[in-house]
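Quick review question:
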């Protein structure tokens, strides 16, 4: 029995990793295609909602999200989320051919550091899930620590969306990145929660009425979070390079997912000192990568301004 259980668990993780890898490549093309559609529409002078390339990117995003949903329900989130590094690298390669967006040396180094730091987070992040049933999930939803965490995230999102995004969104990439990444605190746990609740939500009986309500609540949370993410991703692509945005977004999203999964699923209880130090090193490496990506973007803008020839009198 135990051997079969271990084999089944290993097969589930392998299947989740395989789905996540395919989804990463699909998601890697999403931002590039949407950015291309936005540029084409801007050149024509009409809305990108009328552009076929933009819609192809949107369709890719839908497929990628479906793949992520499946992957999160058969493998630990802390393993699935960082595999998005493959999408970042594929997106950078695609952008260099389709958008002619080439990362300078600082950008390439920053991208490498981001991917390396994310791998370190995968290795040292907690792997066990202490919440695997509907009853355990309902118990966690009443935990004061979780409620405080949700309140802080919601407050940050309100400040970012209502006050900071209208003023600084088009000039500071971290505003849109922070909004989309913080929403990952709801999308990934909601996806895993739906997988736990779904088997009981649609079976008859008064005992399962609560399961249906919880299912609808999680589904609504997931839908609203994805729609808001979709809106601000396109706002970011209107103002910033798809290369830079995808790399920074991937890093912050993965870090947020690991943190939210740890809070919701109580995964940090068995983490030792070595793993804690590994996580800190991974976060430091990721932060250095994000800093270099940000510096490379500002350096590129400055270099373009310097290269503009002065008009002769």
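Suggested answer, residue by residue:
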């Amino acid at each position: 029995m135990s051997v079969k259980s271990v084999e089944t668990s290993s097969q589930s993780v392998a299947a989740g990793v395989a789905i996540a890898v395919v989804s990463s490549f699909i998601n890697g093309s999403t931002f590039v295609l949407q950015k291309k559609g936005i540029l084409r529409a801007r050149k024509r002078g009409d809305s990108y909602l009328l552009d076929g390339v933009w819609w192809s990117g949107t369709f890719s995003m839908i497929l990628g999200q479906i793949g992520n949903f499946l992957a999160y329900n058969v493998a630990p989130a802390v393993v699935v989320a960082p595999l998005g590094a493959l999408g970042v690298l594929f997106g950078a390669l695609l952008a260099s051919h389709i958008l002619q967006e080439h990362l300078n040396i600082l950008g390439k180094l920053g991208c490498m550091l981001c991917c390396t730091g994310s791998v370190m987070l995968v290795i040292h992040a907690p792997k066990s899930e202490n919440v695997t049933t509907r009853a355990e999930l309902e118990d966690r939803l009443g935990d004061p620590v979780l409620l405080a965490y949700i309140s802080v995230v919601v407050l940050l999102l309100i400040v970012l969306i209502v006050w900071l995004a209208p003023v600084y969104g088009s000039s500071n990439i971290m505003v849109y990145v922070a909004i989309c990444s913080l929403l990952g605190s709801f999308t990934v746990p909601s996806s895993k929660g739906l997988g736990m609740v779904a088997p009981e939500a649609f079976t008859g009986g008064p005992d399962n009425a609560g399961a249906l309500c919880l299912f609808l609540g999680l589904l609504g949370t997931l839908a609203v979070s994805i729609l808001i993410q979709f809106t601000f991703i396109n706002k970011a692509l209107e103002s910033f390079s798809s290369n830079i945005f995808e790399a920074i977004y991937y890093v912050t999203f993965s870090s947020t997912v690991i943190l939210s999964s740890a809070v919701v699923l109580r995964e940090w209880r068995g983490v030792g000192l070595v793993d804690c130090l590994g996580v800190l090193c991974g976060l430091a490496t990721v932060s250095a990568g994000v800093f270099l990506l940000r510096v490379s973007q500002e350096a590129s803008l400055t270099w373009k301004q310097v290269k503009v020839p002065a008009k002769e009198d």
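Why it works: Residues 2-44 form the longest helix (43 residues). Confidence is low (pLDDT under 50) at residues 301-308.
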